[in-house]
Amino acid sequence: MLIGKFKSNNPLLHIILFLLAILFWIDSFIYFGNVELSSEHQAPLYTFIYRLLSQYPFWSVLLSFFFMLLQAFMFNRVITNKNLVDRNSYLPALVFIVLMSSSFKLVGLQPFWFANFFLIIALDKIFDDFDEHDTYKEIFNVGLLIGVASLFYYPVLWFFVLIWISLIVYYLVNVKSLLASLLGIFLPYLFVATYYFWFDKLGVEFREWWSFFQSLFDNPLLLTTFQWVTFSIVGVTTLIALVAVYGSGLRDKPVRLRKRHRVLLYFFLISLVLMVIYFEDLYVNRGIAGLSLAGVLAVFFQENKKNLWSEFLFTALLILVLVGKLLQL
């Protein structure tokens, strides 16, 4: 029922999305005192936010709620404007809100909320085929956005791989494009390094940065029963969506759309790898993975002709969210 409704262009859907978001976040507003912000291996730009809001959990929850709504509509605009789903669809926003409301550990101004903001803009630019009129400038801009995003959460730096994969997908690989992407990523770090050098902190901060990237595969899969159930159901749903969309669903689409779908797929796969190798920060990485996963599932729900299956799978996701909320009470 919800899937069918959100495929249509109804002005009331904005209100319905807002009310659903409030419903999913009721437990967060009630138990805001239990919110914990990520305190380990803080990136430079996130350190200031943590110090400012860690003592004010209610404002942290409230601001993250509005960040979620803002990013839901930003992401919906990117996916619909680039024709990955119908232009009048609100499925990307709906799925994004559901995924980002699925755990209490995603609540509060966690670093992924800021990283996702820049990643959405970067993804939009990549979908534009790097603007054929000024290719190297756009490649530089995407690198810059990923560099800034990583200053809120270090592992986002690995998304430079997405730039290079996208260059391959769009047949834009050459020395200049690779250098433009590296320069864009490097520039924000140059300013930060200059700041730390000025205050004699460069050596300490570099060791902290390097130690994070050495902390691979920390804290192996120690999950609760409900977490295992959640990941299993989401995993099966995702696998069905990937097979349906990328198995044969792209054959009749224009070349440009097929390229955009592939970029979205690689975005999701990189996010998945980050969840595995930086398992200690599972929920921060889960927040980043939720961005691309929302796109994949939205495309599946939009394209799937068997509406009963779509409604069944989406209902299963909703039940998981609601059960998780009840367990929190």
| Proportion of beta-strand residues | under 5%
> Given the helix and strand composition, which structural class is it?
mainly alpha
Number of strands: 0
Biggest sheet record: none
Strand-helix topology:
Layout: H1 2-6, H2 13-24, H3 26-30, H4 44-53, H5 57-81, H6 91-100, H7 111-127, H8 135-150, H9 160-169, H10 175-198, H11 202-214, H12 225-247, H13 255-277, H14 282-303, H15 307-328
Report on this structure.
The chain is mainly alpha-helical and 329 residues long. It has one domain. Helix content is 72%, strand content 0%. It is built from 15 helices and no strands. The protein is globular, with a radius of gyration of 20 Å. The two termini are 28 Å apart. 41% of the residues are buried. The model has no long low-confidence stretch (mean pLDDT 85).
